[in-house]
Amino acid sequence: MNILGIETSCDETAAAVVKDGTRILSSVVASQVEVHREYGGVVPELASRRHIESIAPAVEQALNDAGTNQKRIDGVAVTRGPGLVGALLVGFSFARAYAYALELPWVGVDHLEGHLNSVFLSEPSPEFPFVALLASGGHTGIYLVNSYTQCRCLGHTRDDAAGEAFDKVAKMLDLGYPGGVVISQLAESGDPERFRFPRAYLDKHSFDFSFSGIKTAVKRHIETHENYREHLPDIAAGFEAAVVEVLADKLIMAAEKYNCQRIALVGGVAANTALRRKIVQEAESRAISFFVPDISLCGDNGAMIAACGYRSLADPEGPRGRLDDDVYSRAIP
Ligand code: KG4
Ligand code: ZN
Fold this sequence. Notes:
Radius of gyration: 20 Å
Number of domains: 2
Strand order of the largest sheet: 3-2-1-4-5
Bound molecules: 5'-O-[(R)-(carboxyoxy)(hydroxy)phosphoryl]adenosine, zinc ion
Mean pLDDT: 96
Number of strands: 10
Distance between the termini: 31 Å
CATH architecture of the largest domain: 2-Layer Sandwich
CATH class of the largest domain: Alpha Beta
Structural class: alpha/beta
Helix content: 40-55%
């Protein structure tokens, strides 16, 4: 079953063709980084306008790259939320019209479930149950994944997402956009011990996160150290170490609490080398198996949306999109 997946929730126009929920036949990601760079963050209206320009070419290229055509697509999956409403509406309206015109079944999927499905697109992929940390620019949470359709949120961020903290700190330090990649590159040459930023564990048993305190701590550091520009790599490394430590510790804590031998890491922040390294170490010392998708599948992409939609579309009784379905901006509680 070939599913066309479409993703336009933020600043990537993405389309992919995935066979049977696991085999990527093509994956096209048209990045808008250049459009938003001069503003230091995503400008929603510009994102929508760029999605409108890019969506049809991205879908056409995904079909070409997969060596297929409209007639050999069996269903369409598209991100329904959470995300920027104007951006979501472009992909959603396109996918719905496309499916309607071709008389194909289609389904709107949750972006966060899409990220969780990215782990099934790289080999080896985990058996159930597993505990997953989803860390992206819009969301950070820990999930107990019992099956393709059964997943329980154990905790999530109470304020900023982990990726958002990277982006905001990069902006404060005038390092450019997008922040995650810049900070992690800079941190490679820094000393993570030189400046110790706070680790917010909240309640000892909580799987919730908070990243606003560390952001404020970096701001205070900048305000009180006139020469802070001379030690940017150390600030970046200290900040990254604090975020990585909390993320990795809570993921391991959750695996131990739920007696789970498998953990996974997904979302844009999963591309972070220090985080991958730390989780590998912690998992190895406890004989826990660690699963992380290929870097190309960590950030937003259409393949994870296709994989997620396949779970519904392959089931004759599974949910289907309806013409009066709408998008949503926030995570469904
Ligand atoms: O999953 P994603 O592409 O979009 C959302 O769903 O939000 O995640 C984007 C986020 C951004 O905040 C970006 O700064 C962060 O992922 N990110 C990273 C790295 N690469 C991307 N954060 C830390 N280290 C990285 N190497
Ligand atoms: Zn995402």
